[in-house]
């Protein structure tokens, strides 16, 4: 069999990646059985990231209580497509004047350069000043990320409570809840505290999510240290590294996402439009 010369730079590809080898044949006289290795030139070797599979999606009529329990208990992420359209927040919160009624309440936002892949620096600001800020084209990224808005403004909680939300949260012990408000936003790849499942609901705008299983190779994820031990420095949106079997999906207003415990996820929105999500972390009871 013909042996392809092994260039010095060729290293073993990471497990599971697709190795693409492009070979140029030059003047080979195969018929004569006169093949010389030097006529084969490996000109390019690329480790192509595997395409991500689409997140499994379930719609409301088919979503019985038992199928919902099954979805949550199988520890596989799932989109609950348009299952939360009845949240009052979907119609109230995008209205200019509604959230501004709570303008004086202090919140925290993250501020970072537009193209920075990591978390931003946290700053305190009033909700009113922040919403005002989002009305303008900003030369930096501002994001009210992971903020416990309902602790500050309990009145808003009723806008995100429906029988389905309550049914899902009843499966476990509620831990905490966050609200996310921004325009273009990026949350780097990370996993939530290991024991917690996440119910994430899109209220306004669109977000894209990429997810990788808990058993993903930490070495390949370039995980940080200290408080960033749950965060990867890999930019999963540039597709530069193959992290194994990933999933991706898009969340629109009214969609929910179940992020099972331990799953790595990165969430981004590249629209220059108001984007709001809420989530709850809860511990599933056996
Ligand atoms: O919406 C986002 O930017 C990130 C959400 C997230 O990472 C989470 O809910 O754990």
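-> sequence recovered:
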């Amino acid at each position: 069999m013909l042996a392809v010369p092994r260039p010095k730079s060729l290293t073993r590809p990471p497990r599971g990646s697709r190795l693409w080898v492009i070979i140029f044949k030059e003047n080979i006289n195969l018929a004569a059985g006169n093949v010389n290795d030097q006529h084969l030139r490996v000109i390019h070797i690329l480790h192509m990231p595997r395409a991500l599979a689409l997140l499994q999606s379930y719609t409301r009529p088919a979503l019985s209580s038992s199928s919902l329990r099954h979805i949550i208990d199988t520890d596989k992420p799932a989109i609950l497509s348009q299952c939360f359209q009845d949240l009052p927040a979907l119609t109230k919160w995008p209205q200019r004047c509604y959230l501004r009624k709570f303008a004086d309440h202090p919140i925290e936002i993250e501020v970072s350069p537009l193209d920075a892949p990591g978390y931003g620096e946290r700053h305190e600001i009033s909700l009113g000043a922040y919403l005002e800020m989002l009305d303008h084209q900003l030369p930096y990224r501002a994001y009210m990320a992971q903020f416990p808005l309902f602790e500050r403004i309990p009145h808003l909680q009723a806008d995100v409570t429906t029988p389905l939300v309550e049914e899902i949260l009843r499966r476990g012990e509620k831990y905490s809840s966050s609200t996310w408000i921004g325009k273009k936003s990026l949350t780097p790849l990370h996993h939530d505290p290991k024991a917690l499942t996440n119910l994430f609901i899109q209220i306004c705008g669109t977000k894209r999510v990429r997810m990788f299983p808990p058993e993903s190779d930490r070495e390949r994820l370039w995980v940080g240290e200290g408080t960033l031990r749950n965060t990867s420095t890999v930019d999963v949106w540039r597709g530069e590294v193959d992290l194994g079997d990933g999933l991706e999906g898009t969340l629109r207003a009214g969609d929910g996402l179940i992020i099972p415990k331990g799953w790595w996820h990165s969430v981004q929105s590249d629209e220059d439009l108001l984007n709001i999500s809420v989530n709850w972390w809860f511990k599933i009871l056996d």
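The radius of gyration is 24 Å.
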